[in-house]
Amino acid sequence: MAVQLTSGSIVVDADGTKLSYTDSGAPSNPGYITIIIVHGLGFNANVFSAIQPVALANGFRFVAVNRRGYGASTPLTPAELDTIRDGTPDARAELWRKVGVQMLTFVDAFARRHALPVLEDGRKAGGIVLVGWSFGNAVTLSAVANIHAVPAGTRARLAARLRALILQEPPPNLDSERHAQQWMPLSSPEFPDEAKMPLFAQWISAYFDHPNLSARTLEFLVPSPRTPPSIWNDPDGFADAIDAGAAPLADIVVAAGMPEHLARACDAALFDPAVRAALPHMRVSHFVGARAPAFLVHYFWVVKDKAARFGGTPVEFRLVEGANHFVFWDSPRETMDLYRELVA
Which key words are in the record (predicted)? Predict the structure, then answer.
């Protein structure tokens, strides 16, 4: 199915901050579901170009948002980066609250601009699914956590539409519980800066053969020799999705400087009764590929254990057999089947 993606941007605050996006467009079926997804570190919204036509063919609208600094979205300002590096805890918390509110503003504005269907008939139709992929969860979780920071009208419109929140392989930058063996090329000083992003793209898109998932035994360093990385599947298209400019460097600053704030956002979005009450129709799930990099699988277990400690907070957890970090690139149809199951 040939799909011509459209692109655009939305101003999300009084300072003129813009978030840009690509959009599959509306399917022909009334009461369709809209997926709004936020990308990870080093990759822009083009990383979802393979799944967007599949989504449309399956009756979903699929909108991929560029985070601050990616695509045509407004970069973080030097003052904001200084706050992340050296700001007080209160200043950092306020900055990340603002980032979350900007995302909520985008979702509400896009829904109104395109008259997205609201939830209907006991969740059988309509509504919005908010998905964070990888480091994109830092934005989506902060958005949900700050639902009470938006005006009452915005909050009511979001409550009428937000049917699901999906955590797709969030990284442990959202928490302090990092595994002692955690490693990735981007944070390794032994590699020159110009080599880090190309190496990271191949490593993060690889498949890993973990020794024993039942025993939580993981392979942290060496990708599988049996399955080529996703970057080998259409390397030219993959190159369009990679951003080797200033945005990934800013992300590294955020990841290093904001772990406590991101962890609080994760806990609030998933476990705060007031947040969940404000979004009464929102179903929450967290999934990870069984062949994804080890630090993502490890954090899946961290969140799963945390949910058990919170005593029955409803979060659905899925370990997806055979999948790596770019399952939507290599297996878009299977990924759409999974999304459908998680948001039903």
Answer: Hydrolase
Are 52 and 62 spatial neighbours (Cβ–Cβ below 8 Å)? Answer: yes
pLDDT band at 197 (very low <50, low <70, confident <90, very high): confident
- pTM equals 0.95
CA distance 324 to 331: 10
Q: How far is CA 146 from CA 130, 209, 280, 295, in A?
A: 14, 38, 15, 27
- Exposed, middle or buried, 254 (CB in 10 Å: 0-12/13-18/19+)? buried
Length of the chain in terms of residues written: 344
Whether residue 220 contacts residue 180, with contact meaning beta carbons closer than 8 Å, is answered with no
Query: pLDDT tens digits, residue range 108-125?
Result: 999 999 999 999 877 778
CA angle 136, 139, 145 (to 5 degrees): 135
User: Facing residues of 289 across strands?
Assistant: 320
Residues pairing with 35 in the sheet: 62, 129
